[in-house]
Amino acid sequence: MSYLLRKRTMLIVRSFTILLLSCIAFKLACCFSSSISSLKALPLVGHLEFEDVHHASKDFGNRYQLIPLAVLHPKTVSDIASAIRHIWMMGPHSQLTVAARGRGHSLQGQAQTRHGVVIHMESLHPQKLQVYSMDAPAPYVDVSGGELWINILHETLKYGLAPKSWTDYLHLTVGGTLSNAGISGQAFRHGPQISNVHQLEIVTGKGEILNCSKRQNSDLFDGVLGGLGQFGIITRARIALEPAPTMVKWIRVLYLDFSAFAKDQEQLISAKGHKFDYIEGFVIINRTGLLNNWRLSFTPEEPLEASQFKSDGRTLYCLELAKYLKQDNKDVINQEVKETLSELSYVSSTLFSTEVTYEAFLDRVHVSEVKLRSKGQWEVPHPWLNLLVPRSTIREFAKGVFGNILTDTSNGPVIVYPVNKSKWDNQTSAVTPEEEVFYLVAILTSAVPGKEDGGVEQILKRNRRILEFSEEAGIGLKQYLPHYTTREEWRSHFGAKWGEFVRRKSRYDPLAILAPGQRIFEKAVSYS
Ligand code: FAD
User: Fold this and answer.
1) How many helical (H) and strand (E) elements, i.e. helices and strands, does the chain have?
2) CA–CA gap between residue 332 and residue 182 (Å, rounded)
3) Residue 448 phi, psi (nearest 5)
4) Element (DSSP H or E) covering residue 187
5) Residue 276: CA atoms inside 13 Å, Cβ hemisphere, count?
6) Residue 184 pLDDT exceeds 90
7) 431, 402, 436: which is closest to 419 by C-alpha?
8) How many angstroms separate the alpha carbon of residue 8 from the centre of ligand 1?
């Protein structure tokens, strides 16, 4: 009897569950089909794609995949504004969100949206890239938010000019890097890319098109820079330029000791009159035949001694420097470089240098990209970890991480260099440690199938160890290109800036339509 009763109850529960799920599925289907038909009715110069959307569900990290409802290929800024305004007018009950996608070089789905609209920013070319070279001594270029930095380099070089601050890799978009910071070896001198922008044109989360700068709508301007795409879509940017060099003297030297390496880096970034134009560095752990590889593109100052230097099994620190050359100042510059190098304490037999064009120097990572693509090693998972570490704890961090946790750097570079906080604008949304000098530490490991220690889970486990070690040792780091899953973690990441961040969100994107892939806010939920 009780058996029959139990069976009947289970049958009822099962039927009810199926009915409920069918209702949800039906409601979602209705919701999607009404969203699709209302989006299809938008008067656009560009177009919306509903079928071929899978490319927008992937990114460079190759670990997260959210399939969007549609991809917008905008031709004009009004296309972007109409789409966002339409979604804003649908109110809090529509599930639609919007993700601007630059080149999709994010690591954890930051440019993706589940069932929302991805905006393919590279389609946007409202006007030709325009260089204003006559405005010397402060020339600038106006570019679309979806423009690649490599294209900006090519165009501005025609005028003998170039942006001042870069990223190591130039096949990234203006909107994508300005939403983070844009850091490279020039940042110690000029600040990150977000410190080198005069003006922006923004489409907010309500679909308004606003111009902003330090003088006009400055709250929006500051918020968007380093704002992880939360307050608006960057459709145009005015970027500061400087006279471009023709050639670059590119130098590498090695250290056996982190403290000596860091001391020299810190001296170089603080030096009055800045002796170099670019300062970076990287860690090398357990690599064989390193200097022989360098010989393919660099020349040793002391060939015999260099050939006797053994890198095998060691942890080494490479200081990488560049000095920009102009035709008429080469000899003077070479003499200056020699004098500055003589004040540093690297292993003397490891001085290598070369001269390359400015363009080849800036586009150097693309050479590696081509090589890795040809070996099928570019489109692999990239569980990267990017950190900003205060100067006061970098030595302890290096001891714990480079000395104990990282055992090999053959699956990707580990970049380490200091920058000056005084070159960062604290009004922007970008988050950095509080100290005057802090280091970028970029652990850029690829999960290469078949390679020892190449598994994604193993690399993620190691990344977690690095974060746990840093937490326990009180390193006080901040994540760059941050990724968190809870509100508490985001609150702690932003620290004193959290209140301002939330206020700006409720002002410029009150329904939380924009950049849902950052996982900071959820659509139409209040978090104050
Ligand atoms: P996406 O990944 O497409 O977008 C990034 C975020 O910005 C997303 O949230 C997106 O919604 C938002 N977004 C995109 N466009 C806009 C827009 N127009 N308006 C508003 N929001 C927008 N970074 C450095 O700072 N220094 C480096 O040296 C450096 N080197 C790199 C090297 C490689 C090989 C790679 C893959 C990345 C590197 N990065 C570096 C990281 C890079 O800055 C980020 O990946 C950044 O996200 C830019 O990529 P993207 O243009 O493809 O943007």
Assistant:
1) 16, 19
2) 31
3) -90, 120
4) helix 187-190
5) 28
6) yes
7) 436
8) 56
